[in-house]
């Protein structure tokens, strides 16, 4: 299943409407109904991570094709000059996301009757900067989400695994509307 920013935004909007809880603005703006207008702290942090460690981060274009090297080479000078406004436009126009993975491994000793057991926890994090296309077209938002799960294997055989978990780490749509993110673990089957 291909997860698109439109689908994720739709899920977030549906969740926000269902919650009917007290809401607080997440992004300060005097203009109600306006999405993000320029670089945010999270955007700058993501740029710093991508441009300082390009081997561990991937840039995916709108077709979700890895364009990391080309994007890095094309915009490295803009990054060195701290031109985050130009980088913001490039991310928005050219990329679906910046993504990175983390893998944690724990080895448990085996014995002569049982092979070594290895537990592995894997998470992929995605930073998305995009604009809405339906309902309120052209409103910019950013989203940070993580898909994670774990598995255990003995020798070469997987003997146990967890469900994949989708976690929305951050969602920022400026003053487009007010909302509160409630931490929920959503399991993907």
Counting H and I runs of at least 4 residues, what is the number of helices?
Answer: 4
- What spatial form do the alpha-carbon principal axes imply? elongated
Beta-strand residue fraction: 25-35%
Strands, count: 7
Percent helix range = 25-40%
Largest sheet: 7 strands, antiparallel
Structural class: alpha+beta
Radius of gyration: 19 Å
The end-to-end distance, rounded to whole angstroms, is: 11 Å
Q: Helix and strand string, N-terminal first?
A: HHEHHEEEEEE
Number of domains: 1
Average of the residue pLDDT scores? 79
Unreliable segments (pLDDT under 50, ≥5 consecutive)? 16-31
Walk me through what this model shows.
By secondary structure, the protein is α+β, with helices and mostly antiparallel strands. The protein has one domain. The chain contains four helices and seven strands; from the N terminus they run H-H-E-H-H-E-E-E-E-E-E. It has helices at residues 5-19, 41-52, 68-80, 84-94; strands at 58-61, 95-108, 117-131, 140-154, 157-161, 164-172, 186-188. Strands 1, 2, 3, 4, 5, 6 and 7 form a seven-stranded antiparallel beta sheet that branches. Strand 2 (95-108) and strand 3 form a beta hairpin. It starts with a helix and ends with a strand. Mean pLDDT is 79; it is low at 16-31.
